[in-house]
Amino acid sequence: MSTTTPAPAPSLHVSGLAYAYPDGHQALFGVDLTVARGERVALLGPNGAGKTTLVLHLNGILEAGAGSVAVAGLPVAKGNLAEIRRRVGIVFQDPDDQLFMPTVREDVAFGPAAAGLRGAELDARVTEALTRVGMADFADRPPHHLSFGQRRRVAVATVLAMRPEILVLDEPSSNLDPASRRELADILRSLDVTVLMVTHDLPYALELCPRSVVLSGGVLVADGTTQELLCDEELMRNHRLELPFGFDPRSVTVPR
């Protein structure tokens, strides 16, 4: 008698998520979103759309007013927050919000050490994370001696050291020179984690994320391939999304 192996839970499942801030402002209205394991998805939308509010629900910083969020099948709820925050790694827009230890090595070790790793196992975890972002040779350098692009890669390593299920990136390409932007893109493509990228940089979303969703006014208004969405002039105009002058999304070979 054959048995069927159940399909793995998606990395992220958001169902009917609604949230109002204490001042009464309703930021999210019944958002539904499912992201499969290993997908790279861009979260697009104008300022004030609710993108940050949604992200803050993914690791329990905000508690849903209605609906639910689950990460790899585990509900985002009070009793699960320690594990949820290991599974959902957020890389902030400014790496200096994330790096605070005297050396790169100590910054990357901080999370795993707080989780109980010690000795050779901790050292191996730090080396693994720094190698994945091409920063192993900088382990003993003070973070403030690094370039902005290098600090952003170290910030990514601090999250990868926790071996997350989902890597959430807030405006990852901001303030990067062209070489650093390309290097980070190469790193992100090489990772075997689910990526949710919050960005206004539409060409970067097209380069890295086969799929995009558009959040506007607290409502998920579009979900499709990034190229299709960026070619939808009415959608773009209605939700204040603008491509750089002269950039044609139809001319780009999209990732798979």
From TrEMBL:
The way this protein sits in the membrane is described as:
Peripheral membrane protein
GO molecular function, one example? ATP binding
Question: What main location does UniProt list?
Answer: membrane
Name the keywords, alphabetized.
Answer: ATP-binding, Cell membrane, Membrane, Nucleotide-binding, Translocase, Transport
Q: Does the keyword Membrane apply?
A: yes
| Domain ABC transporter stretches | 12-242
Location comes to: Cell membrane
Question: Which GO CC annotations does the UniProt entry carry?
Answer: ATP-binding cassette (ABC) transporter complex
Q: Name one Pfam family in it.
A: ABC_tran
Any one GO biological process: cobalt ion transport
Q: Which domain of life is it from?
A: Bacteria
Entries under InterPro entries matching the protein: AAA+_ATPase, ABC_transporter-like_ATP-bd, ABC_transporter-like_CS, ABC_transpr_CbiO/EcfA_su, Co_trans_ATP-bd, ECF_ABC_transporter_ATP-bd, P-loop_NTPase
**Protein's UniProt keywords contain Nucleotide-binding:** yes
Its biological purpose is as follows: Part of an ABC transporter complex. Responsible for energy coupling to the transport system. Probably part of an ABC transporter complex. Responsible for energy coupling to the transport system.
Protein name per its UniProtKB record: ABC transporter ATP-binding protein
Which organism is this protein's natural source?
A: Streptomyces lydicus
